[in-house]
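## tool: complex_structure
## caller: assistant
## args:
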Amino acid sequence: MVTGKGGVGKTTVAVALGRALADAGRRTLVLEVDPRENAHRMLGVPPSGGEVAIVRPRLFLQNLRPRAVLDQLVREQVRIGPVVRRILDSEIYRHFAEGAPGFKELAILGHALRLLRGLERVRPRAGRGGRGAQQSPDVDVVVLDAPATGHGLSLLLAPRLTAETVGKGPIGSMATELVALVDDPLRTGVVIAAAAEEMPMQEAIESLERLRSELGRPPDAVVVNGLYPAFPSADPAPDAAGRLWRDRRAVNDRELARLAAAWQGPRPELPLLALESGPGLVAELASRLADSAGGAP
Amino acid sequence: MIERAGDAVIDLAERQPPLIVVVGAGGVGKTTLAAAMGVQSAAAGVDTLVMTFDPSLRLKDALGVDESARDAEVRVPGATGAGLWAGLLDARRTFDRLVERHAPDGEARARILGNRFYRNLAGSLAGILEYMAVERLWEAWESRRWQRIILDTPPTRQALDFLEAPERIVNFLDSGALRVALKPWFDEGGRLRAASRWGAMGRSFEAWLDQVVGLDLLRDMAEFFAAFAPLFAGFRSRALEVQALLRGPETLFVLVAGPGEERNADTLFFARRLREAGYRLGPIVVNRIHPPGDPEAPVEGEGRRLLAWLAERDARGVAALSGLLPVGQPLLSLPLRAAEPVDLASLAALGEAFRHRT
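## result:
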């Protein structure tokens, strides 16, 4: 799960992480949750439109509409065609699906869990098994580009809140199952995307603290994106561009030091590159992520 | 840097417009720009309130305000000219305050504040932050304490959620969904009324419902809506007033965007949506562009090549955007600074960009 506030390149980090995992041999699905699709451009494929797009061997992309997942859940739970239609068309359901706290988040996480269990396929298969039939999943990892709301932690906190409030029944047990998924560091990794600038770093550190205090776990990594290259100390009398570079890099260094003081875990750094946003940039960033993880992301 | 002049001007030394709404995607520097405009507006002699959402601690430091700004507007010490105030929006506290203020009596207040649904979930109801911003804005606007309010909107990628919040709340309050929620579903003993009327079938329905979502939750929700019912009329009328205010001649929108051509689609989309929805769009500001280097200076080494490339990319993005905007749409670009403003002086320097008519 890649979290982080807007503007720090969260989607870039998520997509690069997906690419790195795929390159390392894991079958990976990048799940984007944003009605204005963006990730497909970075990967050089047409917009997903809600379907699963095959990007390259072992790498898939899907733009998830939480509402579609909720609708599907209603279809599966109720099963009676006319009743399903009445529910889906009703004003109450619409307000509920749009406004009820936590349900979109549950739908997103639930979808990821079903993919990993093989209950949901990335590719339609001939002779699909019966309802709920367990098949071997066709992805090993789902990289979730968490919606950039609040500190992006609402997704992680939603199952707990729902489990506590609802408690029982299918929704409650689904929430409880998702709490177990989110709490298990072997199954769910949390990556905070950050930028080494004043406010974004402040927010990343606040996210870190909230992860510890509210979920009782640290992130797996804080990826620092968009770093200026080191300024050559030998540069004698920098011009305006050189001064800007020197000063921005000084801000980067100061913020990296602030992060290091708050968090001693993995902090991969991604540089600013003279490359247009697209597959070339993603491939380059993916290889840097793989390098920083010692070849084992 | 003024890229294009246009009709919808902004001059912070004038009293007009009295409400400036700063919108744009997250992470483009909206909050800082809103604060900088506030400093400039106050310096020009206009009593100004800057309302913002959860800014970083450093910005609070820069404005010299603390956590107390979450509860009320605080005067920014050291600002020159007229008064400058700052308010930080906290959805939860605004919600509680609304309840405190508008609940018909102490008992109703206690009932809402003690409700489990309200305590656990109401704070995360979709759109609640946006709606609370609407309430807080109206409260400030109605008080007539300031000649100008500069509103920094919540950081959502589409940033339209805030503008649609008043409409959404009115739709919900007018909807059948609310009427259903307000029906007396439960009897005095907390049993489902329908269940006791329908006998055995009703009881098995009640048990099923208890299984699926839990009767406790439904009871809490029903109680929540019932307790809130007396407040709905007020919510509705204030939402309508804010809707009118945002579309009125008092209000000008400033759209802030990030540099780079790949962001232009989002910027154009947002500008079009604003105009189509009847809002008055002032300047579009492309923030933090890498300035062009000295043409005489050699471009050598990885670092300098990167900077030259970034400057060229950002200039290309602004030029492309300018070509795509409708006639008369002012466009302003602001250079990336050595560091983000951290005090009143540096905020004032940034605010200079808005001093002149765009």
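## assistant note: Chain B has one domain: 2-163+244-354. Chain B touches chain A through 63 residues (CB under 8 Å). Handing back to user.
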